[in-house]
Every structure is written in C-alpha cells, then in structure tokens.
Amino acid sequence: MSDRSAYAAAGVDIEAGDRAVDLMKAHVAATRRPEVLGGLGGFAGFFDASALKGYQHPVLATSTDGVGTKVAVAQAMDKHDTIGIDLIGMLVDDLVVCGAEPLFVTDYIACGKVVPERIADIVKGIADGCLAAGCSLVGGETAEHPGLLQPHEYDIAGATTGVVERSKILGPERVRVGDAVIAMAASGLHSNGYSLVRHVLLSGAGWALDRHVDELGRTLGEELLEPTRIYALDVLDLIGQVEVHAMSHITGGGLANNLARVIPGDMVAVLQRSSWTPPAIFQLVQRVGRISQADIDATLNMGVGMVAILPQDQVDAALARLAGRGVESWVLGRIEASEGPGDAVLV
Question: Facing residues of 157 across strands?
Fold first, then answer.
C-alpha cells in the first residue's frame, strides 16, 4: 500500500486538497495588493515592508478571530460563499478601530472532509471580504480532520496585520468629556450571539431555516446568514477626513460592554436607547426567547456594528461623510464625567 493510499484510507484526501487549491487561486489573486510578493502555494506569504517607509513611526497591529457557531447555519443551509465575509469582518474591524489600515490576512479552515468546491466557496467569501476591506489574502491552511469532524463540518479562523502611524493611534487617552458618540448601523446579527439565537429559534421554538418570517421579509436562514458588514474602508475614510478620538467594534458582549473598553476611567458614555430601533431580528429573538433587556443587550449588537467617539463640532461632517459612503449613522450619546471606572450605559 502506498503512502498516499494509506493516508486516503485514514480519511485524508490529498488530491482533493490539491484541487481545492486550484479552485481558490483566482479568488486569492483578486485580493493581491502591489506589496504582495510571490504567489499561492508557498510555505509563507510575503508582504514587502519597504512600503512602510512613508510612515514616520509605523506600528504594526494584529488581530485574530473566527466566526463562532454561525458556521453551523452555513453548513445546515449548504451555503458557504459568504461565511468568509464574516471572518474578514471580525478581523479587520477589530484592527481598524485603533486607526490601523489592514494590509494582509491569512486563514485557516479545518474540515471533516475536503470537498474542493465547498472549500473554494469559503475562500471566495474570504477573498470578497478582503476586497471590501482593501487588504490581501496572502496565504492559509486547509486541514482535513477525519474522525474529529463530521464530513460536512468545518470551522474557519484567521489573522490579519495592519499598520498605523504611532502618533495617530486612536484610543481612550484621546476621549474628552463632551465628545459625541456616533453609531453605525449593523447589517444584522453579524457573527456574534449565534449560540443564543440558535438555542432560541431553532432548538427552543423549533423553527426551520427555510421558514419564511414575515417580519424579516425573508426566510430565517437567509436572515441568519446575512454577512457581517465590513466597515474598514469607511472608518479609514472617516478618520482621514474628520477628527476621531476612539472607536469600538461591537461584537460579543454587546454595545455597552464593547464601548466601555475605550472609555477612560473618569468618564462614562451615556447612550440614548431612544435614538434607534433595533432591527426585526433582535426583537424577534428577544420576544420568542423571552429574554430580558439586560441579557440581550449583553449578547447581541442590537443593530449597532461600529461606534465612533469624536468632538461635538465634528458630528455633522462625520454623519455626512458616512452617509456619502452609504453607511447609516446617527448620534447615539455623549461622553460625560464620572467618578467610577470607565463605563457605557444605555438610558
């Protein structure tokens, strides 16, 4: 028995892996920035760091993440070409809140069985996300784990690296009392809280993914697979045109908890709940699951995907800039003095 056939007998198909690489090459190539060296298939991806010579004091920023149990919805629906967009959204929008420009991404796909077309679909989504964020997909890994994962199961993760001028890093030290808090609308659930959502609607209520939900205007599955909005280029444009002090990507933990991470110890972000109405999916999960306001606020983004903190005199320019890029935004609240630790509260 040859080594290859022995490995195949153990459940690993090397030829399928090679075909998956062939199918994804065009998607990866579409994300190529001029600083990327070499092509797909090497042991490492290369990015020409001489491109950073234009910075006075370049600081590299990095982020790593996955998409959680949203992959279970993609697998159940057998639709795999958008889950990669979610991955990039989780990566680059964590990075960009400090002011960093995402440069490149690497990905990791673990699966029970390599189905080349499915892997290519996943990578297509990753590439689409990279294009939306202006970064390159420079490499990755696809691993087949028979016996650990079922043939239809997979999980994805990735890492991204970006750069920011040290003097322009955004963060709590820039925030001032009186600053405005601006919200940017989410496209939906994004990629957080799916364990709760699946528990409430699929396990608890017994709803099928192909069930048409009138208040959503589409099937439940279509709503749950709505890709995460990628704000990277919108945020970079915003901070290039108006004065921004800090930003927060609203992911796991909800709006107030994530925003509190960029609030100084002697301040509080007071957020007006009346300034927006959470989209239908959030109201649906809360009603069907009989979830308290506190619990749902601490789990889901409630329709706010990104938050910017900036001076009051920059509000009109910021809202106009975002509107011009098709990003719905509004004044969410204000930074006030506080005697306690840095916090954010909804009132």
Answer: 66, 108
Right CATH for 6-165 from 3.30.40.10, 3.40.50.920, 3.40.50.1820, 3.30.1330.10: 3.30.1330.10
Contact 220, 280 (CB under 8 A): no
**How many CA atoms lie less than 13 Å away from 18 in the CB half-sphere?**
3
Candidates 31, 4, 32, 29; CA nearest to 18 is 4
What does the alpha-carbon distance between residue 314 and residue 305 come to, in Å, rounded to a whole number? 20
Report pLDDT for 339.
83
Selected from 3.40.50.150, 3.90.650.10, 3.90.1150.10, 3.20.20.70, the CATH number assigned to the domain covering 172-346 reads 3.90.650.10
Summarised one tens digit per residue, pLDDT across range 32-49 is 888 788 766 667 888 888
* Residues 6 or more apart in contact with residue 279 via CB below 8 angstroms: 186, 188, 303
Q: What is the pLDDT of residues 220-265, one digit of tens each?
A: 999 999 999 999 999 999 999 999 999 999 998 999 999 999 999 9
What does the block give as tokens for 273? Answer: 């709940």
Residue 219: is its pLDDT beyond 50?
yes
**Which pLDDT band holds residue 51 (cuts at 50, 70, 90)?**
confident
User: Are 94 and 63 contacting, i.e. CB atoms less than 8 angstroms apart?
Assistant: yes
The model's confidence at residue 324, banded by pLDDT at 50, 70 and 90, is: very high
